[in-house]
Amino acid sequence: MNLKSIINLFSILILFFSASYIFPIIVSAIFNDGSMHLFIYALIVIGLIGLIGFLSTRGSTNDMSNKEGFIIIVLFWIVLSIAGSIPFYLSGMSVIDSIFESMSGITTTGATVISNLDALPESILFYRQLLQWMGGMGLIVLAIAVMPLLGIGGGQIYRTEVPGAMGEQRLTPRIKETAQVLWLIYLGLTFLCGIFYYIGGMSVFDAVSHAMSTVAIGGFSTHDASIGYFNSAFIEFICILFMILSALSFTLHYFAVFKKKPLKYLYDPELKFFLSILVVILSLAVLLSYASGSGLSFREITFHTVSMVTTTGFSISDSSEWPFSISFLLLIGAFIGACSGSVGGGVKSWRVLIMINHAYKNIMKIIHPNSVISLKIGTKNVDDEVATSVWGFFSIYVMSFLILLMLILASGVDFETAFSSVGACLNNLGPGLGAVSENYSSINTLSKTVLAFAMLLGRLEIFTLLVILTPMFWSK
């Protein structure tokens, strides 16, 4: 294992992250909110660590194996979350609360331990949104777009960082160009979302902040009331639109925009399945609302359904008093999650689609043992090896969920809060049920630590993190 090469590349990635502190410094200067020193100190500390690491390993060979790529990814997200927590800690938060908030931001989970957001300095509010925006597409992908200019390859990192089907699919012949295309799409969606938010009545600050967390499917807001603070049907519609767009595969956006093939949207089986899930859950939620006499409006149910299924976590009203059946239904929708190759969380729609079709195939084989039935998604055949891999992922996912749930229950948290908080953090959703319906400040330190690990596990799609914990990974 080339330790010097790992430290060299790791230092470059840290330097990329340290540059992000410049933006909240500018925001602090504009609003004169008195918090500039928090980010200056963080910039100096993290920047020096990255610079010293880079200079001390300069000239090292940068040929990396897949094993080293896995190590870089996992360590980077852990250290990045610790580095991101420095401004929160300097502002007066505890160590675990600071790391929890930073991990939640950079993994686009949206779970927060902060209450009374409206009273926070603008620079800290903006910094929370920036963490989510950077984590949405992945700082690694951004770095890969620039690393070739420094003579550093990044293929192994790209394959371990980009989740779902995108991990083995390049949109362009070169990885650098693929990363640049992804970021152009990401930037374009953010710009358009911000413009429409501003047209809808948001201030420039709120429009930019919410555009970043919307397109990142993060769910952080600059107000305690979230999107409901603006009480605008137009803003809610824009939010719904861009949550859905960001939950779709960026491969589809690429073909629609760069290849001028918008009809790809109409024929993609995963997109059809994802939208079908949205419609089914929305219909069930409306029926449950009617049956329970909750008095919830169609507008409320629609917004929260899209927000939960896309794993964003925005809200327009207090859902803590909703009928439990509706809240639980929406949480289950978050388990399914967004499309592959998107910035959303969850198991991912394509995996669920493959599992359903594979189960149907096996049922048909039982009924007709001699028949030859192929597994198809749309018009494409899916190898049994792929289906086996998906079921393997799902089994590890369920086991991880149960272990995390037992740890939270052992810490003294009630079942409703424990189940929903693990589901919300593992699926990078954010808000849960029970004691964590508004924020996570009331739960104990052990629970916050476990849930922070769950966020990382979900962001790296479980295997990337668990693989380095196996003895076989470290054997020669």
TrEMBL record:
Keywords: Cell inner membrane, Cell membrane, Ion transport, Membrane, Metal-binding, Potassium, Potassium transport, Transmembrane, Transmembrane helix, Transport. This is Trk system potassium uptake protein. Low-affinity potassium transport system. Interacts with Trk system potassium uptake protein TrkA. The keyword Transport applies. It is found in: Cell inner membrane. Signal peptide: none annotated. Coiled coil: none annotated. GO terms for molecular function: metal ion binding; potassium:chloride symporter activity. GO terms for cellular component: plasma membrane. K(+) binds at residues 108-109, 217-218, 311-312, 428-429. The keyword Transmembrane applies. It holds the Pfam family TrkH. The chain crosses the membrane at residues 7-32, 38-57, 69-90, 130-158, 179-199, 229-252, 273-291, 324-347, 390-410, 450-474. It is a multi-pass membrane protein. Belongs to the TrkH potassium transport family. Its main location: membrane. It comes from SAR86 cluster bacterium SAR86A.
